[in-house]
Amino acid sequence: MAQDATPTETPTQAAEPMDMSLSGLQAKLPETQSWLIETAPGFLLKLVLALVVFWIGSALAKRFYRMINKQAANNPRIDTTLGRLAATLVRYAILIAAALIAVSIMGVKVASILGIFAAMTLAIGLALQGSMSNVAAGLLIVLTRPYRIGDYVELSGQEGTVEDLNVFTTTLRTLDNIKVIISNGDVRSNTIKNFNSLGKRRVDVDFGIDYGDDIDEAIKIIKNTAAKDDRLLSDPHGPWAKVACLNDSSVDVQMRVWCKPEDYWDVRFDLIKAVKEAFDNGGISIPYPHVVEIEK
User: Fold this and answer.
1) What's the mean pLDDT when you consider all of the chain?
2) Cα–Cα–Cα angle for 85, 88, 91, nearest 5°?
3) Domains of the chain from N-terminus onward
C-alpha cells in the first residue's frame, strides 16, 4: 500500500526566502537612500521653521504675560486678581496658537489635532470631575471677588495673606511665613472671612485689674494711653473701655479701638505693652491667679 510522501525542506531551501528578503532589501536600499536625500532637506527645513515659530510664540506669550501683569498692578482701576487671570489666559492662548501653527508647518492637519484634543478634553473632564469643580469655584471667586491678592483672610480654617489665586487653588502666606495651598472647591464650600475688605478693623484687648483697684482710674488710663497712638482711627469711635467680666481673681476691663487692617497686629501688641506700663505708673495692679486651700 502506497503512502503519501510528505515533502521536506532542506536547509538550503529554507534559507532561500531569507536570502530573497535580504536581496530585496538590498535592491531597495538605493531607492530609499535617494528618497531620504530628496526629502530630508525639506523635512529639516520644516522642522527648523516650526521650532522657530514656537520659540517666537513662547517669547511673545511671556512678554504679554509680564506686560498685562504690570499694567494691572500699576492701574488702580484694574483688579490685580483679574489682571493676573487675564495674563494667564492670554499666555496660554498664544502658546496654543503657536503650537498649532508649528504642527501645521510640519504638514499635520490641524483639524484632526483639534478633534483629538476635544476627545482628550472630554475624557480628562470626566476623569477629573473634582478638579473641574475647583475650576468652576475659581472662576466664581474671580468674578464675585470675595477676596483679592494681598488681602488678609481666613479660608477653610486657615488665616494668611493671599499670595496667589488661580482657577484651581488659592495660596496663603501665614504670619509665621508658611505657604498654605487650598483648593477653590474647599474655599467655596466654607465660610470666607476677609479682614481687609471693609478698610478698618477693631482691636479688642482685655485687661484684668485687682478687685481693690479703682476701676474708673483704670478705664481712664486705658483710654488716655490708647489716645496717644496715631495709628488709631476716630471712625466709628475713638478709644473705648468698659468692664467686661468679673472673674474669680480679677475685674476684666475690655479696650476697643479701631485701626487700618495692615496695622492690626502692631497696634494690638504695642497697646498691650503701653497699658501695662501705664498701669504700673498709675498704681493699678494686675493680679495673679489665687489658689485657696481648705482644710477640714
Assistant:
1) 81
2) 150
3) 41-122 (1.10.287.1260), 147-194 (2.30.30.60), 201-282 (3.30.70.100)
